[in-house]
Design a protein that fits this description.
Layout lengths: L5 H5 L7 H5 L6 H10 L5 E5 L3 E2 L2 E2 L4 H13 L3 E6 L13 E4 L6 H11 L3 E5 L26 H10 L3 E5 L11 H8 L10 E4 L3 H16 L7 H13 L19 H15 L1
Parallel strand pairs: 1-4, 1-6, 4-5, 6-7, 7-8
Antiparallel strand pairs: 2-3
Amino acid sequence: MNKGTPEEVTLRYSKRGMTLLKEYLQKDYCKMAAEKLLQAPKGNVLITTGFYVAGYAETDGPIGTLAVAKALEGLGYHGIVITDKYCEGFFELKNISVEYVAIDADQSVYEEILEKYRPVYMISIERCGHNLENEYANMRGDSITGQTACIDTLFELAAEKKIPTIGVGDGGNEIGMGNVRQVILEKLELNPCVVTVDDLIIATTSNWGAYALAAYMAKLSGRPVFITYEEIEEYMAQIVALGCVDGVTKQRKMGTDGFSMEIEKEIITSLKEAIA
């Protein structure tokens, strides 16, 4: 198989129109996001994830978050996950700092979070953002507003406070997809998230987009901070044991968005080759 760029690797097997959105982004959108991130002063980086599916958080998001948090720590930053109750226990497994937000938390809670951590950067990895109707909806168009904390508020506040942001998504309803919302409305016939970010990363699954960001962080820094497949496999098993489900099949099983662990391994191997 072609080695390809990390951007090309993460769009393999695309079925949700992300290859179409690629035409509206810079060619090396992932590399650009990593370059800007690595120019930030060392400090706290807030990372949000956790997408509600059938009573649980899905496997897409938390594993990419682990990859990015691990890379950040290796480069002298401190990653702090902001999420809600459906990811409870996931990040403590890997000693990643985490703060849980109540589903009905109001804007003052998010203002306090920014005041408390004073982040140098913020990253969203597969986190639902509100659409034009101020609803949170899954890929089927069903409302998950009652199961989703309004963590996208952090990203709207970040824009006002000039805190740089990255959003990673794979469908159109995630934080950051507001950057291409008109294209999604016209070409993908989905009610998109309207929340924007400074740099949008698209991928077939958001985990893969996060892996590509971490891979570029390793390449650009020259430091061995890229996650291994073995670490991913171990962590996947641990969070599935806690109730995490595949976002497509809704089953508690190893895999992401209907893709097997063999495909996950292929993506990691190809990303390693791409940055070698």
